[in-house]
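Notes from hallway chat w/ T.B., transcribed later so I don't forget. T.B. wanted the structure written out for a chain they're using in a teaching module, and asked if we could keep both sequence and structure tokens in one place. Agreed to drop them here.
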Amino acid sequence: MAKKRKEDHELWERVKRTTKPLHSNRASQEFKAEMGEMNVARPEPIRGVPRIIRPYAPEPVVAVTLAPKPSLLDQSVTRKIAKGRTGIEGRIDLHGMTQAEAHSRLFRFLESSYQQGKRTILVITGKGTRGEGILRHAVPRWLSEPEFRKYASGYHEAHVTHGGGGALYVRLRNPVKALGK
């Protein structure tokens, strides 16, 4: 047992010599005195070679002009549509379609309605079972896609008389303004 203590003590002394205290000025003075202040040579900086530090410059941003994201229609516009002061010029019923079918049909319908100069259309999605209709949630997402943005300027849930939560009023962009006339 005495032999083991002596080995442990010697090992500890060796470790102690190779460590440097983290804190306490007094401890570091004692350490320096104990170690005989070892001199460690620091490398000299290389002279004659200019060191160029370039400032960070982010990659250039490529501007892509997209039509603004469709927003919810103003309350006044929605009220006018619901009361019949602003007519619904077209309607499409997406009931019973798959998402792929509904997506392509809605796009074609928006495109043709826009070309015909229509401004307000009704998109009937259906509420689905327990109000969790797939198309009911997908159509607003689609209206935010770049291809749909060209035509739709805004949307809002329809009034109860037009289908309520299972339908949307979609306001189309003004083709006259788009053409710059």
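Follow-up for T.B.: The radius of gyration is 37 Å. Might be a good example for the class.
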